[in-house]
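Researcher: I'd like a candidate sequence for this fold, 367 residues long. If you have to choose between options at a position, lean toward the conservative one.
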């Protein structure tokens, strides 16, 4: 029986983007033993994957204890006698793990200083190439006879979690939101300023949607370190509601913030009428559901960062359009004003959300 190890360390969003690779491998090698090496933060989004046989979690610590952790994991990998090791990451730690397996077939990107660790080296597309990250990773499967992934056939995926769904229902009930009430989920944080739409724009969008749709609750969510920012956006949005014609205090009360773990956030999005957010891990998580998605993009091109999922599910990307400085490497804003983000108006995002809500309503009636 063929045994295959996949390696992808670090971020949640990046690990979600490898799930089409897992599915494609299972389809090509139905009897293989598929294992996945990941760090703790991203383990929850892959641990229930139906195509995997084994999840190996390596601690993310520093100093001498990290060396001890890595040696212990490397010995475990060596004992497993993998036939194939695929480094989906390309970083020095992931490359070393791939090499340490001793697998006869070790596949990785052509990165200076690390090529020697692999038996098969694949050229990696340049950072700003208008090509999706999933398509770039799928190139690593060519030595195994797999010619790419398709979003309709190989979408990103995270398994449903019934326990998390029940927790979400309880939480929504505490917020006065019933099982059949419509919900818009708005994720307002990002891991760097090049992906963070202005707070005032989020507030205006939330206020407008709440004022126009008396049956809609807007839930503002964020990463754990930005919960205060989410609360501030809710307060700002509630204040903005009063400026909308025909709005009342009840409309403002339907804009709330909430904290949800990864599994809960996915279940919340899955039952929502629309998800609105930037290029981030939570957006990739949202893409594993059928919920309509509005993605607000800054310096990244849609060809590279749009949700990788079946085109049957409503997805709309809103960006500032062509700019001389777009795309960029997201290290320094050349104009200094983040115009790729500030150039996206709340009106445009609201209009996209309206189309998503209409589509969501049509699907609900069809059921």
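Model: Candidate sequence:
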């Amino acid at each position: 029986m063929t045994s295959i190890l996949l390696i992808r360390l670090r971020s949640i969003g990046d690990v979600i983007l490898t799930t089409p690779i897992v599915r494609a491998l299972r389809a090509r090698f139905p009897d293989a033993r598929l294992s996945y090496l990941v760090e703790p933060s991203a383990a929850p989004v892959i641990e229930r994957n139906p195509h995997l046989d084994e999840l190996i979690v390596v601690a993310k610590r520093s100093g001498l204890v990290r060396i001890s952790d890595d040696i212990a994991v490397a010995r475990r990998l060596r004992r497993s006698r993998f036939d194939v090791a695929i480094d989906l990451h390309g970083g020095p730690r992931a490359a070393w793990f791939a090499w340490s397996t001793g697998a006869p077939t070790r596949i990785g990107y052509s990165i200076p200083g690390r090529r020697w660790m692999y038996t098969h080296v694949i050229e990696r597309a340049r950072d700003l190439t208008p090509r999706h990250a999933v398509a770039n990773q799928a190139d690593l499967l060519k030595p195994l006879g797999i010619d790419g992934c398709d979003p309709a056939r190989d979408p990103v995926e995270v398994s449903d979690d019934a326990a998390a769904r029940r927790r979400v229902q309880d939480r929504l009930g505490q917020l006065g939101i019933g099982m059949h009430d419509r919900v818009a989920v708005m994720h307002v944080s990002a891991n760097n300023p090049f992906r963070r739409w202005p707070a005032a724009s989020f507030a205006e969008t939330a206020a407008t949607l709440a004022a126009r749709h008396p049956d809609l609750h807007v839930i503002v969510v964020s990463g754990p370190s930005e919960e205060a920012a989410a609360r501030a956006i809710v307060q700002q949005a509630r204040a903005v509601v009063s400026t909308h014609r025909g709005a009342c205090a009840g409309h403002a009360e339907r804009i709330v913030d909430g904290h949800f773990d990864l599994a809960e956030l996915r279940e919340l999005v899955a039952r929502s009428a629309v998800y609105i957010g930037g290029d981030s891990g939570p957006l990739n998580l949202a893409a594993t559901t059928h919920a309509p998605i509005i993605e607000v993009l800054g310096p990244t091109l849609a060809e590279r960062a749009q949700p990788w999922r079946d085109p049957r599910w409503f997805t709309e990307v809103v960006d500032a359009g062509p700019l001389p400085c777009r795309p960029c490497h997201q290290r320094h804003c050349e104009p200094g004003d983040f115009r790729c983000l500030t150039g996206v108006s709340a009106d445009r995002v609201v209009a996209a959300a309206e189309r998503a809500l209409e589509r969501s309503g049509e699907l609900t009636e069809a059921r």
